[in-house]
């Protein structure tokens, strides 16, 4: 287990009430999600600015640095300090980050909501990733995941306009649930939580409400997770990367419906999934 860095436990409002008029001129109050700019400083060097709802800023930054391969171990980090008064986070390392200029010189704007950014050629490291071939998911576990997401309390149900990502055990038990303005932020926050808890991904299931783009698939692979679910679809490059690293992609996961696109050997079909008898409404599409 790596030694943990010093972390702030920052808190800020996640939603705001606003007054609106409907098509009949009637006034009402609704909630909308907050969105904040959070500028990241790595050893006093400005790295980038992320747009975030602000729910899990410390985990978000840790996961971002991990998924970008800028920081390889928690032992390298001394502190992560978030200050919402100036909308900034200061990350301090013990020894500095070698070749930081070269490693951050190339930026790629991704298809993530709000335009995600990745540094360098993450695709160059994909060839080194090999996900566990013996990982399995049962049909009933898949339905448990979908049912959990459907019923879980969320900012989306209150205010909309956010994406959610979640991590589940192999049998469909919820481990982490994170919402943010972009799915790339939510997956990074979960990566940060896994890092802090020294949790491995080889026997886990990852769910996202957003598309399974190459960025999402690469990040899932870097987290060691062999099964990705989405209520949306996938892109051609996302599909190609999943095939390459040995990841099973499930898209259009709504109700009883799903589409398995890659590595079907992981799915264990069941003639009558146990959850069908427990919750018949689950299978209404």
UniProtKB/TrEMBL annotation:
Protein name, UniProt field: Sulfur carrier protein FdhD
This protein's record includes keyword Cytoplasm: yes
Active-site residues from the entry: 113 (cysteine persulfide intermediate)
Main localization of the protein described in the UniProt heading: cytoplasm
GO MF annotations, alphabetized: sulfur carrier activity; sulfurtransferase activity
Superkingdom of origin organism: Bacteria
Keywords: Cytoplasm, Molybdenum cofactor biosynthesis, Transferase
GO biological process: one example: Mo-molybdopterin cofactor biosynthetic process
Originating species: Undibacterium parvum
SUPFAM superfamilies: Cytidine deaminase-like
A Pfam family reported for this protein in Swiss-Prot or TrEMBL: FdhD-NarQ
Function: Required for formate dehydrogenase (FDH) activity. Acts as a sulfur carrier protein that transfers sulfur from IscS to the molybdenum cofactor prior to its insertion into FDH.
Location(s), subcellular: Cytoplasm
GO cellular component, one term: cytoplasm
InterPro entries: Cytidine_deaminase-like, FdhD
Family: Belongs to the FdhD family.
Transmembrane segments: none
